[in-house]
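ok here's the first one, seq then struct tokens
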Amino acid sequence: MITFKFDGIDSSNYFLVNNIKRDILPSIKDKLVQVPGRSGTYDFGIEESERQIDIDVTISASSPESLRQIVREIATWLHSERVKQLIFSDEPDKIYYGRLSGNTDIDQLISMGQNTLTFILPDPHAFGQTKQQQIDGSGIEHTTDKQTEWQTGTLTGLKATPKGLELEKVGTDYTNTVNTWNGLHTQTKTLNNKLILDSTSTPSTTTINDPSGDFAMSGLPSWSFSDNMSNWSNTGWESRLTTPFTQTTNGAKCQSAGVSAALVKEVPNMSFPYTYEFLYRLTPPTNPKNGYTTRASLYLVEQRGPYQYHFNVTLAQANSWTRIRVVVKSDTRANVYTNGVLTTILNQSAIISLSPRIQFIIDKDTSSQGVLEVSQFYMSSGAIDTAEKSVPYIQNREFEVDLSNLNTYQSGSISFNSVAPSGLHGWDSSAMVEVSVFKDGEWKELVEVVNGDSLPYLNHGDNLSNMKVVAYMTLKAYDVSYLPTISDVSFSITSGTAAYYSSGNYIISDAAIQQVQKAKQAILSWNETKPNGTNIKALVSLSDGAYEEISNGGSIPQIEPSTDLSSSSLAVKFELSTSDNTVTPEIQNYTISLDTAYYTTGERISDPTELDTIEEIGSSFLGWDGTPNNSLNIEVYTQVVNTGDSPSNDAWQKVSNEGTIPDIEGQSGQGRSLYTKQVLLSDGTYTPLLHSQTVKIHPNINSTITYEGTAEAYPIFYVNFSSDCGYFKLLHVQSGKFIYIIKPFIKDNTLEIDCSTNKIITNGRVEMASLSITSDFFSLQKGINTLTVDPSGVAEIRAEWRERFK
């Protein structure tokens, strides 16, 4: 017995179906056009009208009341203003969309218990399954060649660098240069930080002090007034005019733009000649005023008889602290020095109505502006002669000593104390001592020394006859308040003849090499002096093993790349000898250098590459570039797992360089992920370098749709761009119709082509303007439908359609 469902409710709940009348085809209307004066008509095809389905039904009820209740429920069920799903039990895979016709008489069900239900189907076709098919795709292509990319995943024994993937070092490199000799001495000793043979007799030491005593600067200007401006309001200065000066850690400061500001010190009865010196800084204001210049002035006003005269010194912009000295020699001559250099000569003073004073001013009437700071002010009456000398003040002194009576030189040093106060704002003083030696008939070039330094040019064993040494002292200052000194200068000379032991040795053990763990290279080197008749031999022992001789700069024989140094120590033994007891070999320093070995193997397991976008995998490619080229010490493996799973240790498959990924072609990528593993191998002395790796996986694309419906269907195409392109064209080969969109697309753009509504949607918005007028939306016909995409491979394209049946 046939039943039907309408809006999901089965008809068997209410009545029996007696008969269903379904036409093979819907009503067809010919589209003919009669042309006057011409026989026959033009044929424009047909039009299919709506379909009507009649269903004869019978209601069974136990009583009239029960019948009416059932009919009322039927009326509620079947009444609809819109079409609903209509499915018949003899073709359950087909769906019609219809509604009950207004011609159906529900009341007849009540009176007769049976009736004919008439359903109207505006769309006369039945609908089947909704299907999807990928018709084009870009697949997956990725090159790993950046440090940030190599850092992803899990790295074991490897590290990512700007050049690629390389093996890590096992430990930490170790280099130690030693010039202190705190080990075990046997007939050896330390002299001036050098290892030498010990002696059976001791030379004498002579100390010569500078007879001139302390060295201090003299003959500098003596100022009658000195003010560091740290509390200027209490030393006679006043802030006047519109913008005030304020107290800062540097001194007095104001900022003025478009208004005037002045810093004034009244000096009653001041009369030239006079000398002034100060530090200032002048920078542009925060909000400068157009048409104004960054500058200031210094007024120096004297009382001369009943009138006041002044010199006006212009202060230019100075972004750093600048030292100004003004020497007013007379009422017609003033010299201005900037940082010790004569820069301006003022030849005439002018009458002014101001009282005798010193006045710094930023004057709006002269269109001046700026941030003015004043610090460390000096003045004194008279034109101080020494004040006209260029700063810095520099004074020198020498302390010379004749060494002729000291016989054979063993060692020597210079000692002294020096004080060099820091001046204001970088104008610092300095105290320097340099040493020269008269040797081989000439004075050698001066060498700057610090307290306790050894004397230059003099060597152990030198005959001091006709030799001299001199200390050349230099004091430099910019400010008489911050003067340097040098004191307690002396030379200490050890001289005389020593009788050295014929042989001796020195042993030291170094456990710090443990940080290296394993070393690809281990070197011992030293700096030495070997007079005629002397010799030096070096030996090494690893972890209390036998000593083995080593050449200077040679490899330590007991250490190989595979040697475990994590609990080892290295003993170094130097053997010194001489056949002339008046001379000794010496070692200035030695260096132990161990370069850490590389791990012999390391691996990186990548993050997963999701294959979900590929319905069926086609061809694949995996290749890499390394150093050395085509190195067998670089291996790559792959493994495909279910998405969310981790790769198994025993399921990796090795890949040949520029080969295919094993066992992947023809498989579905949906719900699957690809892992790659890179393995680097080494003997520990070097690391291979993996610069880049490229993975390509192409989808197995079928651009032909086999349509199984008997009525045409209108597909929707969903396009997700993976590359940039300038246009997009989709052609239906059988009909010749195509969609041509003249618009550039970039990666991650989306496009929807809806042939059922004739709409183009880009990135979620309807956009018909980019659709070429030559375009024509198309439908799928029964059988083969071939589609071509231009350009191909720039996007993943899925077609979706619903089968329709006549």
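and now the second one, same deal
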Amino acid sequence: MVDGGGPAAAGTGTPGLLRGRVHAGDDGTAVTRVELFFDLFFVYAFLEVSRLMAADFSLTGLYQGTLLVLLLWRAWTSCSWLGNTVRMDQGIMTPVVCGLCVVVLLMAVTVPTAFTDEPGLLTGPLVIAVGFILVRGTAQLLFGAVIRRTERERVSIGRLWTPLVCASLFLLAGALVPPRLPEGVDPDLVRLVLVTAAVTSDFGTLRAINGRSRRIHSVRHWTDRHALIILVALGETIISVGTSLGFEGTARITVPVIAASMLGMVVVAILWWSYFDVAKPVAERALHDAGPVEQTLTGRDAYSLWHLPMISGLILLAMGLKQSVRTTAAEDVHPWRGIGALVLFGGVLLYLVGLVGFQRRVLRIWGRGPLLGAAATLLVLPLAALTPPLGSLALLTLTMTVMVVADQTVFRQRHRVLHELADESLAGEAGATPKELFVDLVFVFVFIQVVVLMGREGTWHGMFRALLVLGLVWWAWCTYSSVTNSVRSEASFLRITLLTILGIALVLGIALPQTFTTIPGGLPGSVVVAVCYVAIRLLLVALLCWRGGIDPRVFRRTVVTMIVAGALLGGAAVVGDRPDTAATATIVTALWAGALATEMVGNYQPGPVSWQMNSIEHWTERFELIMLIAFGQVIVAIGLSVDWQELSAGVLAAVALSALGLAALWWAYFDTDVIVTQRSMRRRKGGDRAALARDAYVYLHFPMVCGLLVYAFGLRTNLMVLSSDPYDSTLLGHVALYGGVAIFLVANQLFWWRSCRQVSRYRVGWVVTVLGLALVTYPLPELVDLALLSLTGLLFTVVETFTGRERRRLRARPTTAAG
């Protein structure tokens, strides 16, 4: 599903200014890593939209959120068309995409004030308008510049500018006109009308797309890109469920809260299944078999248009789930108030309607399962409105379950035929499967909660303990990745087990900020986390037994280390219930450290028996994706740090600098290292390959993830005090900011050395510079700190890009041996 990168041919007919700097895509092009990085910023943007609607839980707030979703969707689809035409990871496109990432993040952090007037020049409506124009305009400009066709086709492409120009003028008017209206005229209503006109105008661009103005160059890229944005929206829904009680980690954890969260997860899982089980692969096959013009028209209608109600439905569902879990936590046994039930059930209904339209447009069939689910949702809605939120969630879960059962029984004949087509389409896929990516989504939330735990503790000791918790979570994920690399199956037992792991991991994430504390009246966080961890490990052992063929030595060692680690965690939970003293805290920390050491040291087995893999591509892609998840957590941390702060040039500059610094770290890992290491894996055999898989991925990726999360904590600590006067920086936040970057870079260099046996003088210089800056910049304001750190990263990135000949040579070297 992810393109590994590599050389690409220059775009045919590219103008002289861009010739050699922009490369054309082809029929085999897959989604590139830089596009996945770009999509992470939309995760946070969609999250902010759902939070905006939840904060103003009314019809007006719902309509405002809908307009923002439509604007964000058009910004995203314009870039998806561009990415299908040119290689986004080649030439000048990578820095262009990184610049657009900054723009999208600035739009996202201003979502809470998108329809309000703030004093000063940088108002929320203006930032949203300018950001939208930059993203849409850049994509449209590059698309027109790199495509040189007949005069008739150029005219057709030129017509796509008219709706965009009109939409831009309406958006600018919506930002600038309302504050200047005379008294007696409602500025909010005028702004809503102008933004509505902008959205209506811009959607005219989609209808203007035809076989002359656009063409789908890679069906695989097109379908995977939209499938991944559906996953992004599902991930945003999972985060909304997990953070329903806020990002502070101080709310009580109760059985009803866990029950509501689990029911919400089941609903999300069923919606995931309704798209990825057969609809996505069969639609991809049908699109591939269509002619060029029909591909473009179907791609426009089925993907750019019919995926929109699915995305919108998931965002509404996220808001409804958040409200239901929040109300359940407040122990409110009364029926829904206002539009709560309508939003919850309406989100599911809208998603299913979009799915029905998608299937009808591509496959020319009416999806019986989604139609039944939509009808049942409408039927149950009046009863749900009279039921407390927890009961409504149970009714919704039951309704969705009926849809699944109907597909497996009443509609089983058609479902079996479609499944055979889907299996043929998926045959030969060696990368991560959709079900694995879906389980990974919960780890975005778990990583967020690790940073929340760091913030709750607020001490050096607390940061260390948070990293211990992260270590056990990391070990569970690595074991899960190893099992799924060996077990390549779509059996029902595997699916049910993975879904169970997903639910348990969600509960673990909810309780994680209270691992070392207990809120009066709530469940003990330490017990919940320990039980969840042991349960996940037991399920993974069950999968190993179900697979069969496991080496007895590996099995015995796995079981022994799991039992010892579980006993240590149980002891930590017992000791943690005693009065909170320094001695108690030290013992608990020692027990957690012992549990982590037991897992990571006890399972460090020499020889080829422990970390064998069936697919190198799958193994490396899994770790690349978990790194992307860690980068996504940093993005969320940046946004939440300035959440609801007063907009100012300083705040927006800090956000932009943080995004640029993160882009430099992303480049340090994804530009060359992952490609060269994957090739090194292919060249090795037997024990050498297993040892490289263990060392470079399991053990050296962990400190890289630690560095990113510590960096996220440092960003959060420093960005949250930007509005303070005088500056209120802390030594812990300062050290975390610079130390997180240094930890990541040192681990990244070790990763490079383990695979190539080389030392990069650029990375060493980058680490030394960061450590030197950390010593001298503490007295400086936070904005200066961020500027120095981010600009240092960009400087070393540029220097290495243009002068690092050896790394470029290794990156371009073709693979000489197959895995």
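notes on #2: The radius of gyration is 26 Å. DSSP finds 31 helices and no strands in the chain.
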